[in-house]
Each structure stands twice: as C-alpha cells, then as structure tokens.
C-alpha cells in the first residue's frame, strides 16, 4: 500500500494530502522538466559507468581462456582491431591490462559526471520546492497558522523536502545504476551460456516476492514514524520557545517527562521499522547466497565434466574463463535485485512527502486578492467600519475563516460570533482608542483592518475603498502595526528597527529610535545598534522589545498607525515619554490604539468601548465619564476611586469565561 493512500488520523496535513493527485507526476513535470539537462547527464553517465564496470570481469574470463589456457584465440577479443593484437602472450596480457585500466579510468570519469548530474538535479529541485512551499505558506492567512504547530510546518519544510531530495538523488541514481547492471549482466550471462544463466536467475522470483512482502509490511510503520517525528518536533519547538516559563515554574522534570514520552513514541515506531528492515536484508543475503552457491555448484560440475558431457539436462559447453565470469557477475547481479526494494521504499516515502508538500503549497486561505485588485492610495486616511461581523471558525456565509487572537475563544465546530455589527467612522488624522474587557474583540477589529482575516459581513473601507478590493502589499504598506506580543528577529537592533524599511540609512534609524525613547538604552548595549538581540529578542526586556517595535513603526512612516497595547511592558515613566513622542507621530495620521491603561488614551478624539463583540459606548473621555457606564467604572477602578466593578459587569465577565470553558471542554471531547 502506498504511503499516503490511507487516511492518517495523526497527520495534521491529511486533508491537504488527500486533495493532491499524482504528486510524483507533478514533481517531475513542474520541477523536474526545467532541470532535465542535469538528469540526462546523470542517466547517460550512469549507463556508461555501469557498462564499463562490466568490462573487467568479462576480460578476466576471456584472458583465462585465451592467454593462460589458450582454449580460444585472442583475436576473438571484442572491439579491438586485428592490427592491434600482439602475437605474444605477454603482449596480449599487457593489452588486456591496458584495456581494463582504461575502463576503470573512463568509468571513474563517468561516475563523477553521474553523481554531478543527479546531485545537481536533486539539489536544484530541493531548493525550488522549499522556497516555493515557504512562499505559499507565508501567503496564508492567520487562521491556518492558528490550527498548525510550528514543528509540524518545519517538518514539511525540512524533513519532507529533504526526503524528496534523497529520492531524486539516491533513488533515481540507484534506479538507473541498478537497471543497467541487472540488464547488462543478464545480457552477458545469456550471451555466454543461456542455460547456466537460468540457474543464476533462479532466486529472482523469490527476491521479488520477498521484496513485495517487505514493502507491504514496512509502509504502515514508516507512516507511524513520520507522525511521531512531527510530534517530537512540535514538543521540542514549544519547550524551547517557552524555556523561560519552564524555568520560572520549576517544571523541568515535568517537561522532561513529556519530551521523554514523545521521544519514546518515536523510538518505538522507528525501532519497529528498523527491526523489520534489519530482518529483510539478511534474508535477501540468504537468497542471494542460495543463487550464488547453486551457480557455483552447477558451473563447477560443468567445468569438471568431460568435453561434450555436460551434467544433468545441460547441453551448452562452458569454459573455465566463462565460468569465472559467471561467478563474478552473479555476485554483482543478485544484490542489485535486492536493492530494488530500497528504491521502491524510497519512492513510496517520497510520494507521501510530495503529497504533503504540494498539499501545503496548494492550500488556499480565505484572505485572497481579487483578480482586479488595485493599488491602495491613501490621501486622507479616513477609515469606515460598515456593520462588520466576524466569527472564528467556519462562518455561515462563504467568507473568511480565521484563527484566535486577543483571548477570543475558538470552536471550529460551532463558531462563536466575535464581532457583531461593529459600525464606526474615523476621520483622517484622528486618534481612536479601543477599550474594554479582555476577549471583547478589540484586537480582532484591528487585524481585520490589515486583512489578517476577512470580515464575515459588512465592509471596511479606507478613503472609501473596500480593503478587499486592493492588493494586500499596498494595503499593508500604508499601515504600521505594533503588537502587544512584540516579535524581534534574530539579528542586530538596527536590523530589527529597519525591518520592512530595509533601505533606510542609519541616521533615520537613530531618529526613529529616539522617537520611541529607545536610543538611550540602545547606546548602553554592548555593541549599540549592532548588538545581537538573540532569538525572538530574548536578550532584551519586554519594554525594550516594545520600544524597538515602535521605532520600527516610526521608521515606516505609515499613513495609518495601529497600536495594540504597544506600551504594556514599559514602566510608567517610560510610557509617558513614549506617549509624548507618539503624540507627535500621530498628530497628522490616523491612529488606532488599544490600551488597558486608560490614562494613555484619554486624549483620543474618539473612544470606542467594546463588550461582547459590540460597541456599547463611544465618545470622548469626558463624555464617557459623564455617562457612568462601563468606561466610567473601568476608569474609576484604575484611578482607585472604587475597588471593583459592579456586579452586572462581573456577571457578564463570568458568563464569557464559562462559555469559553465549555468550548474548550468540547474541543477536548472531540
């Protein structure tokens, strides 16, 4: 059974795999055809190398008969003009040695060009597939990544792509090498003595049957190995990413047990496959040995018999030299037959990997550009949310899917309405603040503006243009987005500030850092702006990372600025300094800001208060305080005027928590 032909409950990409038809045909047509010249070089060189490899044992047998025993004329040697044939035995020996030496020398050249051709073919395809798969993957919307673990995606980009390279190099290389050897040796054996050739080929049907049984047995085991590899990668990736939490929680032993568990699952699955494999090849050796012993016995008796008195049912004569050639070539014939099982195995594994790769490459997100999408040009920066509704999971309408953010609950089976009829307008240059309890949908509102997800109903417009009608790059170039969970790339401080504005000179980088109140602490780092921040910025504090992210947004100089808890990790004094800089930055551009510290947004032109995915209040700071609603109570709590929110607000928060817990339990049951 071919790998990938049966549903795999443990394969997170089963759905993608099942949609791919003829993955290996696609592999060769799409990626193999542009690199066909390398493959042709490899194939032709493989044929030449293997034919030359057959020459030494043939000439050895011929030399025994023509030079040492003189049972036949040396003039019968292949492809040598009569004028070149020496008269003396010594001269004939030197000619034979020269031909054999030349065969080894030219064969070595063919072996080099063979390996060059197949390696170039495989490496080029590996590079192209990996980059194309990554390009396709990063164009997917966020709901896809919310449903997949990083380790699972890395397994495709690394393990599966590498497995394709191994098949395209080692597998195809071995296929042509062994095919030429088997056909060439069989042809030589039948040429010399077809009856003894049949004896030498007796084990072939048994080897074919044994190999077939092996393939049927090993495939389910390799599928289990692939599944456990993905689990190991995901566990290690999660643990290494959360190492600070593990240390702070003193859960090293707990995590060690979890790693030990998934590693042992891989060990058991892999050892099961290894145990099958290490039994298979000794079994093949036994069959090969039976063929060799039988050939040696029959051929030996044949040679020892009187001329014209062949043993048993055999009639054709055989010389000593031909018998030696038979013995040498029989050893080379049986083992390649056995190795065809490995090639079939490599093909099946490559087929499963190609299905996963192309399945991921073909994955389509729901956030896609329309065919007639145009470039977005922002003049005023006015933004309109027109009756916007949104759900995570499959919506009722044929619209966008999404993943969870901002604490919003997710249940793919029964999607929950996250935003319900959100409707507001922002004039160009205004600052709008979004406040409300965690999970109210604030971050989702802003991510819809960037089209990280698409609305289920309604529309979002910038200067009157629906964001779904413009190209994604042109939309996102006009916005700068500073998230609460700041992500820094491995590299220097300057590299991270310049990210997305790669041509900006050092002077502008420094000015952006000053505007974000980051210049002073950067100067105090060991190498200043050239200091390496570590993976995910681990060498910097949370506040430092946020200031670098703000500097990145400042350097981009966007038309619309989106700040999602952009100063949550800085101290109050630094926040005041950053806020002063942000006031200058936001003075002439449209700005959206989410903040739990209400003091940072009290001067906003408009404050939208969210609860349960709806706007329950809107107005200026003074207007909202005068209404004595949710905003006024949140302000009073933060100002220390009251100790806690009224019971009605607490009850609504408890209802939201209970609903989330029910959804989580439902997911666990599923």
Write up what this structure looks like.
This protein is α/β, with parallel strands linked by helices and 670 residues long. The chain has a domain at 17-362: Up-down Bundle (ABC transporter transmembrane region fold), CATH 1.20.1560. 60% of the residues lie in helices and 9% in strands. The strands form two sheets. A six-stranded mixed β-sheet has the order 6-7-8-3-9-10, with helices on both faces. Strands 2-1-4-5 form a four-stranded antiparallel β-sheet, covered by helices on one side. Helix 15 packs across helix 17 and helix 19 packs across helix 20 (630-639).
Question: Strands, helices and their partners?
Answer:
Layout: H1 14-18, H2 23-32, H3 36-68, H4 89-138, H5 142-147, H6 150-192, H7 194-200, H8 203-241, H9 243-248, H10 252-304, H11 320-362, E1 383-391, E2 417-426, E3 431-435, H12 442-449, E4 457-462, E5 465-466, H13 472-477, E6 479-482, H14 493-498, H15 506-515, H16 519-523, H17 542-556, E7 560-564, H18 572-585, E8 590-594, E9 606-611, E10 614-619, H19 621-627, H20 630-639, H21 647-669
Parallel strand pairs: 3-8, 3-9, 6-7, 7-8
Antiparallel strand pairs: 1-2, 1-4, 4-5, 9-10
Termini gap: 29 Å
Fourth CATH level, the homologous superfamily of the domain at 17-362: ABC transporter type 1, transmembrane domain
Could you estimate the helical fraction of the residues in percent?
55-70%
Continuous helix count = 21
Average pLDDT over all residues: 81
* Apparent shape: elongated
Q: What's the main sheet like? A: 6 strands, mixed
Task: Provide the spatial order of strands within the biggest beta sheet.
Answer: 6-7-8-3-9-10
CATH class of the domain at 17-362: Mainly Alpha
Query: Which value, in Å, is the CA radius of gyration?
Result: 36 Å
CATH T-level fold name of the domain at 17-362: ABC transporter transmembrane region fold
């Amino acid at each position: 059974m071919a790998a990938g032909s049966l549903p795999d409950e443990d394969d997170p990409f089963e759905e993608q795999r099942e949609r791919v038809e003829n993955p290996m045909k696609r592999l060769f047509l799409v990626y193999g055809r542009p690199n066909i010249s390398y493959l042709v070089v490899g194939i032709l060189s493989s044929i030449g190398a293997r034919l030359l490899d057959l020459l030494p044992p043939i000439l050895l047998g011929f030399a025994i008969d023509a030079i040492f025993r003189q049972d036949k004329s040396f003039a019968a040697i292949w492809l040598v003009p009569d004028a070149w044939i020496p008269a003396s035995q010594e001269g004939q020996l030197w000619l034979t040695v020269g031909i054999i030496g030349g065969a080894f020398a030219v064969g070595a050249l063919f072996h080099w060009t063979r390996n060059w051709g197949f390696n170039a073919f495989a490496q080029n395809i590996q590079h192209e597939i990996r980059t194309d798969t990554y390009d396709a993957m990063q164009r997917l919307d966020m709901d896809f990544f919310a449903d997949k673990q990083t380790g699972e995606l890395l397994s495709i980009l690394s393990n599966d792509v590498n497995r394709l390279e191994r098949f395209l190099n080692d597998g195809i290389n071995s296929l042509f090498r062994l095919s030429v050897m088997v056909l060439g040796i069989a042809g030589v054996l039948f040429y010399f003595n077809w009856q003894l050739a049949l004896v030498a080929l007796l084990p072939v049907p048994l080897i074919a049957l044994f190999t077939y049984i092996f393939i049927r047995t090993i495939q389910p085991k390799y599928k289990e190995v692939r599944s456990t590899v993905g689990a190991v990668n995901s566990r290690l990736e999660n643990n290494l990413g959360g190492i600070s939490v593990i240390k702070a929680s003193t859960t090293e032993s707990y995590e060690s047990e979890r790693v030990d568990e998934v590693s042992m699952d891989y060990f058991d699955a892999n050892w099961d496959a290894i145990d099958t494999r290490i039994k298979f090849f000794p079994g093949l050796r036994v069959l090969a040995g039976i063929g060799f012993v039988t050939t040696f016995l029959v051929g030996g008796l044949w040679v020892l018999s009187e001329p014209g008195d062949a043993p048993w049912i055999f009639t054709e004569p055989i010389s000593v030299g031909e018998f030696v050639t038979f013995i040498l070539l029989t050893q080379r014939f049986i083992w390649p037959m056995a190795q065809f099982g490995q090639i079939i195995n490599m093909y099946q594994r490559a087929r499963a990997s190609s299905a996963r790769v192309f399945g991921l490459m073909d994955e389509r997100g729901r956030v896609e550009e329309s065919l007639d999408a145009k470039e977005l040009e922002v003049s005023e920066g006015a933004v309109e949310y027109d009756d916007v509704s949104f759900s995570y999971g499959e919506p009722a309408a044929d619209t966008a899917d999404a993943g969870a953010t901002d604490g919003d609950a997710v249940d793919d089976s029964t999607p929950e309405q996250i935003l319900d009829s959100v409707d507001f307008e922002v004039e160009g240059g205004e600052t709008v603040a979004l406040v409300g309890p965690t999970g109210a949908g604030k971050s989702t509102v802003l991510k819809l503006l960037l089209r990280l997800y698409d609305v289920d109903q309604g529309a979002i417009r910038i200067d009157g243009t629906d964001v779904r009608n413009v190209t994604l790059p042109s939309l996102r170039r006009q916005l700068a987005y500073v998230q609460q969970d700041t992500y820094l790339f491995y590299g220097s401080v300057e590299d991270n500030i310049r990210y997305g504005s790669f041509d900006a000179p050092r002077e502008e980088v420094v000015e952006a850092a000053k505007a974000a109140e980051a210049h002073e602490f950067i100067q105090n780092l060991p190498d200043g702006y050239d200091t390496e921040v570590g993976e995910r910025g681990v060498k910097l504090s949370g506040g430092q990372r946020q200031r670098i992210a703000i500097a990145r947004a400042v350097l981009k100089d966007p038309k619309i600025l989106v700040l999602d808890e952009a100063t949550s990790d800085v101290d109050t004094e630094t926040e005041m300094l950053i806020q002063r800089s942000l006031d200058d930055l936001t003075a002439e551009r449209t700005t959206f800001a989410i903040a739990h510290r209400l003091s940072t947004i009290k001067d906003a032109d408009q404050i939208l208060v969210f609860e349960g995915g709806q706007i329950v209040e809107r107005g200026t700071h003074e207007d909202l305080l005068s209404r004595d609603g949710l905003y006024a109570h949140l302000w009073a709590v933060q100002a220390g005027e009251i100790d806690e929110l009224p019971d009605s607000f607490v009850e609504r928060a408890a209802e939201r928590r209970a609903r989330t817990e029910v959804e989580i339990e439902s997911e666990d049951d599923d």
